[in-house]
Specification:
Length: 148
């Protein structure tokens, strides 16, 4: 898989029926190892290393918006079980465009969190929303003390 702009970690990988699989500790199962999944699992590990408890994270979190079923790549919840951070992951080959920001903004209309991360594993865009919906881009990943 591609080298990402994230610290290395020891992924649990296996091959089944000639397809690569990676273990997702949030879903507690092996899932197809796609380029986007590689980014998602690396982000889960990075957030964990920053101090976000995996027990407060969800992969592929389902939401419904305007009658459509959507899935947020990663949602972090606070200790009151309310969402507080959404992460949208793309494959390293996918450029981060306005369309990707629109996608996470749509998810946030439903979840109403203050912190958002958009990443393709190479480029990370972290931001905080204020009470008026204004976006402040952050120079680095948010810390658990600022989010939870």
């Amino acid at each position: 898989m591609d080298t990402l702009n994230l610290p290395d970690y020891s992924a649990l990988l296996k091959i089944k029926a000639q397809a690569g699989l990676i273990f997702d500790p949030l879903r507690q199962k092996f899932v197809a190892l796609t380029p986007e999944e590689w980014v998602r699992q690396n982000i889960v590990q990075h957030l964990s290393a920053l101090g976000f408890p995996q027990g407060l994270m969800a992969s592929e979190h389902p939401i419904e918006y305007n009658g459509l079923r959507k899935r947020c790549d990663i949602v972090v919840f606070n200790r009151q079980a309310q969402p507080c951070l959404i992460v949208e992951c793309k494959a390293p080959s996918v450029a981060i465009s306005q369309k990707v920001f629109d996608q996470i903004a749509t998810y946030n209309l439903k979840l109403n969190v203050r912190h958002l991360i958009v990443t393709n594993g190479l480029h990370h865009f972290c931001c905080r929303m204020d009470a008026k919906g204004q976006v402040e881009f952050l120079p680095e990943f948010p810390q658990p003390a600022d989010v939870l």
